[in-house]
Fold:
Amino acid sequence: MIPELPRTSHYMQFPREILIGTDVATLVGETLKRLGFRGPALVVTGETVLSLAGSTVLGSLNRVGIEAETMTVQSSTTEDVAKVEERVQEMNPDVVVGLGGGKDIDVAKLGSMKAGRSFLSVPTTASHDGIASPLVSMKGLDRPYSYVAHSPMAIVADTSIIDKSPYRLIASGCGDVVAKYTAVRDWKLAHRIKNEYYGDAAAELALMSSRVVMKNATTIRAMSEAGVRTLVEALISCGAAMSIAGTSRPCSGAEHLFSHSLTMIAPKPALHGEQCGVGTIMCSYLHGANWQMIKDFLQKIGAPTTAKELGIEPEYILKALTMAHSIRPERYTILGESGLTKDAALKVATITGVVEQ
Ligand SMILES: [Zn+2]
Structure:
């Protein structure tokens, strides 16, 4: 739980250990032991992930004598979180392990926090920065955006598992990282216009992550171990930036509001990072920044840059652009307080080639 602090104070929570590289999933048990956990452990995961990586992780727990039970989740809703809480009451584990993609980790993260247990993150994909951050996004809450829960005690990111995930998820992760290019610009703007707290260290760390993925587009695209590791390290840096800031501000601006809006209204939304990437192209244009550079990078990485490639009808792109300012009014961005007009939305979408003229 985040402690109550005086208004001018600041609280930061970080993972204590991060293991990254090939076959580190075999070290989950040892990591828990080293951190002082004795078990039992509750492993929260998904059906597919369980068959892919379950035996490695459960085997590693078994080897060090930590008893474990698994529970699978299908989605990341408040009911899934409640189920984790219930299970914690029943079995009384001293740690919860989130094994899987974004939703499995989010459910484990929030469920463990609510049940007052520590949490270990074992990501099997690199599709967004939630794998390493203290934030969660949930379906069924009153807000469609993410908010602060708690940081994992440790992250065990096995690149030999992550590089077997579909390439689309890797490309999506790149979209979520490049989004920091406009997120930080929005944060600076809110600082100037609204005197909102702004932290240069967190901002620069987030920007550095976006520069790193842009610089390493070729190795990431090749899905080489080095490329996957670079992306995962960039996602971890984004998580650290949010930990330092104590908010998602350095990592989430108008491009995220656009993505959240699309998720709310599109009949078939694309992946979070894919939508954020396209949002970053358009928000870069609004900021007068280098939108072409963002578009070139996303094309190079093989991520969507148009409505068509997202598989979303242009009308939803335009609607999301005009409503994005309203879904989180306290988050001031380049969209301002009244948002884009329909004409302005059409203009930014067509100039950047997201929507065909
Ligand atoms: Zn994101």
The chain has a mean pLDDT of 94. The pocket of zinc ion is lined by residues 128-129, 176, 252, 256, 272, 276 (CB under 6 Å). The first strand starts at residue 17 and ends at 21. Residues 322 and 340 are 5 Å apart (CA to CA).
